[in-house]
Amino acid sequence: MSLHLERISLTVGGSHHIDDVSLTLERGTINVLLGPTLAGKTSLMRLMAGLDRPTSGRVLADGVDVTGCKVEARNVAMVYQQFINYPTLSVYENIASPLRVQRRPKDEIDRKVRAAAALLRLESHLDRTPLQLSGGQQQRCAIARAVAKEADLVLLDEPLANLDYKLREELREELPRIFAATGAIFVYATTEPTEALLLGGSTATLSEGRLVQFGPTAEVYHRPRSLRAAATFSDPPLNVATIEKRGEAIHLPDGTRAPSSGLLADLADGRYRIGVRAHDLLLARPNEGAIEIRGSVDVTEMTGSESFVHVHTGAHAGDLRWVALTPGVHEVVPGASIGIFVDPKRLFVFAEDGQLAAGPVDTGY
Amino acid sequence: MDKPINNAAWFLILPAFAIVLFNAVIPMMTVVNYSVQDSFGNNQFFWNGLGWFQELLDPSSELGGRFFASLGRSALFSAIVLAVQVPLGIAVALSMPRSGIALALCLVFIAMPLLIPWNVVGTMWQLYSRSDIGLLGWTVNAIGIPFNYTNSVLAAWTVLVLMDTWHWTGLIALLCYAGLKSIPDAYYQAARIDGASRWAVFTRIELPKLRSVLLIGVLLRFMDSFMIYTEPFVVTGGGPGSVTTFLSIDLVKIALGQFDLGKAGAMSIVYTLIILAVCWVFYTVMVTPENKGARE
C-alpha cells in the first residue's frame, strides 16, 4: 500500500497542530518523523492511522480516499512510548488479540503468534503476563502484536524513549529488519536526530506542525533546504550566527572579521545566517582558509569518547554561543581563552528568509 | 556482622506502646473481662469462664439463636449493599463527563452525601420514606403500591438499602473515577486500533486497572455496612419486629437494654473477630500481587 497525505491540516481550538502537510509514503519503506516535542509527530501519526480526522486535506491509500474512514476499518498497527499491553492477558493472547478480533482461524493465529514471538525473541515468555516481563520485553510484546497483525501501516511513536540505553540500541538495530520482512509502510517518530540516521530510510523533519523537508535520510541530513531543516536535524543544536558580507570580508556580530573564502566567496553582499554543526566547529586550525573565532570557554562536557566545549565569543552586545564537538577527552578550563575554527567549505549559509544559499558540496554520501 | 545491641532503644518505642495500650488494648480488655463473668447488678460479678461464648455459638440456645439471626441479617445486608453499590459505582464512574464544568459539578454532587453525618442521613430518610408525610413513601403509596416501613419487611429493607446506596455509592464512584483517570489514553487508542469492542475495553483494560481501587472500595464498604448502626437505628429502630436488627443494634440492646454485660461482651468479641478475619483475607488478597515478581 502507498499512503498519500494531500495538504493535510488539523486545527484544534484555533491552534494549528498540523499545517498543510503533503507526504507520500511507499510500501516497504522506513520513514522517520523527526522533530522536537510538540512538532506534530504524534498528531500526524494519528491522522495517518485514522484516529483523528483532518480539518482539511485528504488521505489516500493506494489512490483511494480514506479520509473519513475509521481506524478499525484500516489495517493499522501502532506502538507507543509507554508499554501498552492488555495487563491480564498472557503474552500469547496479547499478540493474538488483533487476530482474534479479525476472527482468523485458530491454526493461522497460532502460526502468526509464534512467528512474531520468534522474531522478537519472546518464545520462552508466551505464558507470562506483561507485568512479569522487563520493560524491554513488554515493549517487544507490544511490537510483536503489531507484527502479527500484518498491518499495512505500522506506526511507532517514540517506541524506545522509555527504555534504557542498552535495550534501546539492541531493539533499534532489530526494528528495521523486523519490519522489512512485512512489507508494510513503517513510520517511526523520534526526537533524536541520531536515531533517524541510525534507522536510515527516509526522514521527514517536522517543526511546529509543518513538514520542513522530506527525503532520503542522509540527503536531508547533508543537504537541509532551510535553516529550520538543518536545526531540526542537528544534535547537539546547530550553531547559528548572523554574518554580514561586505566585499572581500565577512563580519560576525562579535567583532570577528575574516576574508570571505570557500562557500562565502561567491555570495552577493548582504546579511546571511550561517549554521555550523558541532562537529564542524574545530579546536585546531584545519587548513589555511579556516575562520578563527576567539572566545572563552564556559563549560566542557565529556562523554568519554567525545567532548562538548561550550564557548562564548565577543563583548556583551554581540555575544555568541557556540558548541564544539571534538573527539577524545579534552580538559579545557572554564574561562580559558580559546580559538575555534570554522572551515568555510563546511558550513551552511542561509539567506535571511531561512532558505539555503550555499552548502557544502563535497559531502558525497 | 557484629552489631552492638543497645537495649535503650526499647525506650524509644515506649510512647507508641503506651498509646496503643491505652487506646486499644485496655478498653478491649474490659470487654474481655465482662465476657467471662456474670453480673446481677450491684457491681457484683461472678466468674463464668467460657460459658457465654458456648451459649453464644450454640444456635439452639436462646442467645445463640438470636446471635446467628442478627449475624445473618448483617451478612445479608452487606451482601446486598455490595452487590448493588459496586456495579453502580463503576457505572457512575464510567459515565461521568470527561472534563469541564460538568465534571466538576458531577464530582461535587457525588461527594455531597459522603459529607452528611450518619444520624442526619437516618433522619432524612426516615422522614422521606414515611407513608404519611414523606415524599417517597407518600408517592409510592399514591401510585398504588403499599409501602410502609414500620410494618412491612420488604419496605423496611428497601429503605435501608436505598439509604445506604444513596449515602455511599459515591465513595465507590470516586475511587473508580480516580482509577480510570490513571489509565493512559494510549491504552484506549491501542484497543481502538485493534478493533476491540467497548465490552473488551472494559473487561481487558478498565477492570484489571481498577482491581486495586475496587478491592479497597469493597473492603471499606464491607466493614462499614457490616458495622452499620446509626442509620437503621434512626429509621427503623431494628423493626418491624426484629427484621432489621443487625448485629450492632442487637449488641446495644443486650448491653444497654437488658444490661447483660457478659453476653454483650462475648458477642462483641466474636463480632470483632469476624470483621478482623474478613479484613485480613482482603488485606492478603490486596498485598499479594496478581503476578509474583511483578515489575513495572
In short:
The complex is a heterodimer of chains A (365) and B (296). Chain A is of the alpha+beta class and 365 residues long.
Describe the structure.
The complex is a heterodimer of chains A (365) and B (296). Chain A is of the alpha+beta class. Chain A has helices spanning 41-49, 91-101, 106-119, 135-148, 165-180, 193-199, 217-222, 227-232; strands at residues 3-12, 15-25, 30-34, 56-61, 64-65, 76-79, 153-157, 185-190, 202-207, 210-216, 239-246, 249-251, 257-259, 270-276, 281-282, 291-302, 306-313, 320-327, 337-342, 348-350, 356-358. Chain A is 23% helix and 34% strand. The longest helix of chain A has 16 residues, at 165-180. Chain A is elongated. Chain A starts with a strand and ends in a 7-residue tail after the last strand. The relative contact order of chain A is 0.12. The mean pLDDT of chain A is 86. The longest helix of chain B has 33 residues, at 62-94. In chain B, 28% of the residues are buried. The model of chain B is unreliable at 291-296 (pLDDT under 50). Classes of the chains: A alpha+beta (365), B mainly alpha (296). The interface between A and B is medium-sized, with 29 and 22 residues.
